[in-house]
Each structure stands twice: as structure tokens, then as C-alpha cells.
């Protein structure tokens, strides 16, 4: 499939070729997904997705496609000022004001999750948020907190 869509034989897929490839396997792609793919999967940093990079990350892509609506809703909920980014303060405010965590717990959680802020600008882009949200670390934190709340 990859090779049939790599029409010019470069060994990597352009955006339109990647979109066709993903559509063939039933993944409907939107612009935010393309940004996520480029930022998340381009391991060698050359700006292109080689077959190895795509194959190594197909499971993440499918998770993202399955949970797209949930991810967009969560991102938009946390992006309080609607600037297209989730600042650490926005995330901390939601975790604290919704009663999910104490202020101290939310600071610790954000400190732990800050590693997903790849460019260290103090905010999460959509692709950084998706990577964080789909991580085992985030799931473990949320599950642990739910269990603590349920036992109170």
C-alpha cells in the first residue's frame, strides 16, 4: 500500500499521498491529524514520513482515529481562552476547579506531563496534547485519581 501511494518513489509520503494511504485503510484524516502525524511520527526530523516511521506508529494512529471526537472535545474543554493551545495554567485550573485534584496535586501532575511539551513553551499544541492524552502515564494518573475519589 505504501509503495503504491509513493508515486514518485522517494521513499516517503507527501501529505496528499499519506492522506490517500490512510483513507484506503479507513482512517478519515483532518488537518489537525496531519499536524499530529508530522510532529509525532517523523522521528528523524526530516519533515517526511518514511514507511518505517509510519509502520512503527500505526497503533497510535488508529487510537487517535478511534478517539478523535473525544480528543477534540477534551482539547477544546481545556483550551479555556480558545487560542488553539492548552497552557499549563489552563490545565491546572480545570483539574483544580472541577475538584479533580488539589492545587498541589495538579502542579505535580503538570510537572510530570510537561515532558510532552516538546518545544518547552509552557503550553500544549493539539498534537502534544494528543500524545499526552493517549500516553499510559496520563491514563494511569487519571485512573489512580478516579480510584481515590471512589474510595472516599
UniProtKB/TrEMBL annotation:
InterPro entries: EF-hand-dom_pair, EF_Hand_1_Ca_BS, EF_hand_dom. Residues 1-28, 29-64, 66-101, 104-139 form the EF-hand domain. One of its GO terms (molecular function) is calcium ion binding. Keywords: Calcium, Metal-binding, Repeat. It comes from the Eukaryota. This is EF-hand domain-containing protein. It comes from Paralvinella palmiformis.
Amino acid at each position: 500500500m505504501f509503495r503504491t501511494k509513493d508515486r514518485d518513489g522517494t521513499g516517503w509520503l507527501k501529505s496528499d499521498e499519506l492522506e490517500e494511504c490512510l483513507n484506503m485503510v479507513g482512517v478519515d484524516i483532518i488537518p489537525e491529524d496531519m499536524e499530529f502525524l508530522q510532529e509525532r511520527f517523523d522521528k528523524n526530523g526530516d519533515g517526511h514520513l518514511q514507511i518505517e516511521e509510519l509502520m512503527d506508529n500505526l497503533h497510535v494512529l488508529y487510537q487517535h482515529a478511534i478517539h478523535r471526537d473525544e480528543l477534540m472535545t477534551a482539547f477544546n474543554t481545556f483550551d479555556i481562552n480558545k487560542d488553539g493551545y492548552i497552557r499549563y495554567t489552563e490545565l491546572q485550573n480545570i483539574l483544580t476547579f472541577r475538584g479533580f485534584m488539589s492545587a498541589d496535586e495538579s502542579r505535580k501532575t503538570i510537572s510530570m506531563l510537561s515532558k510532552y511539551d516538546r518545544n518547552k513553551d509552557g503550553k500544549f499544541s493539539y498534537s502534544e496534547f494528543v500524545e499526552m492524552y493517549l500516553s499510559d502515564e496520563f491514563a494511569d494518573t487519571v485512573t489512580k485519581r478516579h480510584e481515590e475519589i471512589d474510595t472516599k
